[in-house]
Write a structure and sequence with these properties.
Blueprint: H1 12-26, E1 31-36, E2 49-52, H2 58-68, E3 79-83, H3 86-94, E4 103-112, E5 115-125, H4 140-175, E6 179-184, E7 189-192, H5 194-200, H6 204-207, H7 212-216, H8 232-237, E8 242-250, E9 256-267, E10 273-282, H9 284-319, H10 327-358, E11 367-369, H11 371-385, E12 390-394, E13 402-404, H12 406-422, E14 429-436, E15 440-447, H13 454-457, H14 470-474, H15 481-491, E16 496-501, E17 505-513, H16 515-518
This protein binds adenosine-5'-diphosphate.
The site of adenosine-5'-diphosphate has 20 residues, from helix 12 and helix 15.
Length: 525
């Protein structure tokens, strides 16, 4: 019988039980234990003992007798026999399965060239000999038997470690946050992990067997198609190092995104490429952050430099001894200095606000609030400040009470009104309207100004985003106001949005939960 043929199925423990159990039977043993060597088997994952028809309660008795009562087998004497003491035989006779009266314990060293695999201890009737031990004065047949058993056990170990390795690789492949795809030598996809599915929108079953270039449609950062010569996997096949190369790939819906790819190649023994592996990391967010950083620096430096230049210009004029100004001229310069100082102050305040939002430290003091007088108050103040704008108020009576932080909501409204004025250079009519739904109260600010394109509407609530036309850039602002408004409104459990058409005007609205909705009683079912 070939031991290694026994090992096609089952886990390591099962396979070892089959092997050592068969060995005990072949050696005419009735029961036994295989004491595993820690050198050969990982003690963490492998059982220390493989029991064959031996009750676990007998195991300590047998081990005790082995340790204190007899020689151990070694490489020159691989089988040691010992007649059992009556006590152990008595114990054995309690075991339902094994009833031995005159028994001997045999200990067989199982080893091969690579080392010791363990010792097989088994019990059998006194005087019985298996066919492997019949040659007097020679243990050659027994050694062959042990060699077969060791080969079987080694093969079980190997197959188990392959299975474990396969499991580990499968877990890495499945749970990796990076997209991983593998291709055959003809660049056809053979694996496509879940991260790759999330990234591209393709399901693995749809892409298996397809040419990977057709699926990813890679382009360089300028948007030029990467021909086959630019294929990262082909380059890896050709022995080139492809590590963290940035490119653009397309998702199933055509949307493009920035990725960083690393390609590697698995070769056959002769060196020919067998498989290619592509690791794909989405770097869109990193790109956005880079852009955000550079926008931040350009916006902030512009926003700081302008008022500082104005303040410095006026201040140095006023400081000159030869400057002769009448009272009005003097006042207008001082007012300008004050306004620019306010602008600087507001910018610094907004920056601090934005960094608090980012750190998650925005605290709200929510109380039941009647929004009508608040809106009226803000509008009144605005009209006093900008008398050439007319604001129409559309507030229905008995507007429901909302849960809100008065100061913060005033800031939101103030910001929206400031923007409506800033971005309406010619049309001077604004409307502030309030309405109620079953769950919330909605406040809207409408202007007939420059409007915002659909594309920009998606981004204007992001930090530092300013619409890229000349009007926006000649208008002071750091692109923080709407970001702050959104953070405040969302901290109330509300939403903020814009409806706008280019050159027609914009309506910014935000919602706040009605007081009874904000404090829903807990329902226990
Ligand atoms: P800021 O006004 O300081 O630049 P905001 O965050 O308040 O920053 O606004 C972001 C951008 O949204 C502005 O730069 C502007 O381009 C656009 N925007 C905001 N409100 C309006 C509006 N009422 N009409 C047209 N564009 C607007």
């Amino acid at each position: 019988m070939s031991w290694s043929q026994t090992l096609q199925t089952g886990n390591l423990h099962d396979q070892m039980t089959i092997l050592t159990g068969s060995a005990i039977r072949l050696l005419l043993g009735e029961a036994g234990v295989f004491v595993v060597s820690n050198e050969a088997f990982d003690p963490q994952s492998s059982p220390e003992y493989i029991l064959y028809r031996l009750s676990p309660s007998l195991l300590p008795v047998l081990l005790e007798s082995i340790q204190h009562n007899g020689r151990q087998p070694n490489s020159s004497c691989i089988l040691v026999r010992k007649v059992l003491s009556p006590m152990l035989v008595d114990d054995l006779s309690d075991n339902e399965e094994v009833r031995l009266q005159d028994a001997e314990r045999c200990s067989l060293l199982v080893h091969d060239n690579a080392g010791v695999l363990g010792v097989l201890h088994f019990l059998r009737p006194l005087g019985v000999r298996s066919c492997f031990e019949q040659e007097v004065g020679s243990d050659g047949t027994l050694r062959l038997f042990v060699a077969q058993l060791a080969a079987g056990l080694r093969s079980a170990l190997k197959s188990q470690s392959l299975v474990n390795e396969q499991r580990r690789l499968a877990a890495i492949f499945q749970h990796s946050m990076e997209g991983i795809l593998t291709v055959d030598s003809a660049l056809r996809i053979i694996d496509f992990n879940p991260a790759m599915e999330r990234l591209t929108g393709w399901h693995e079953s749809e892409v298996l067997g397809r040419f990977y270039h057709d699926v990813l449609r890679p382009k360089d950062r300028q948007g030029n198609e990467l021909g086959l010569q630019g294929s990262p996997i082909l380059q890896a096949f050709a022995g080139q190092n492809v590590v963290n190369r940035e490119m653009v790939i397309s998702a199933r819906d055509g949307q493009r995104f920035d990725v960083s790819v690393t390609a590697s190649c698995i070769r056959l023994d002769k060196g020919e490429p067998m498989n290619g592996i592509l690791n794909v990391r989405d770097i869109t967010r990193e790109r956005e952050q880079e852009e955000e950083r550079s926008t931040f620096i350009s916006v902030i430096s512009h926003e700081l430099q302008t008022p500082i230049a104005i303040i410095k210009g006026y201040a140095s004029t006023l400081a000159r001894t030869d400057t002769l100004l009448d009272a009005d001229a003097l006042r207008s310069r001082l007012v300008a200095i004050e306004e620019e100082a306010d602008r600087l102050n507001k910018l610094v305040g907004n920056l601090l606000y934005a960094s608090r939002i980012q750190a998650g430290g925005l605290q709200m003091d929510l109380v039941p609030l009647d929004i009508s007088p608040l809106v009226q108050g803000v509008v009144r103040r605005l009209q006093a400040k900008s008398p050439d704008f007319s604001v129409m108020l559309d507030i229905p009576p008995n507007l429901p009470i909302v849960m809100a932080d008065r100061d913060r909501i005033e800031e939101v409204l103030q910001n929206l009104l400031d923007n409506a004025i800033k971005y309406s250079p010619r049309q001077r009519n604004l409307t502030v309207a309030c309405s109620a739904t079953g769950d919330e109260v909605i406040v809207s600010v409408s202007d007939s100004g420059m409007g915002i394109s659909l594309r920009d509407q998606e981004h204007i609530f992001n930090r530092f985003h300013r619409v890229g036309n000349s009007m926006a850039h000649s208008t002071p602002g750091a692109g923080l106001g709407l970001y702050i408004c959104r953070a405040i409104v969302e901290a109330h459990g509300g939403q903020i949005w814009v409806e706008s058409s280019l050159h027609q005007g914009s309506t910014f609205s935000f919602s706040l939960p009605r007081v009874e909705k904000a404090f829903l009683p807990m329902v226990v079912f």
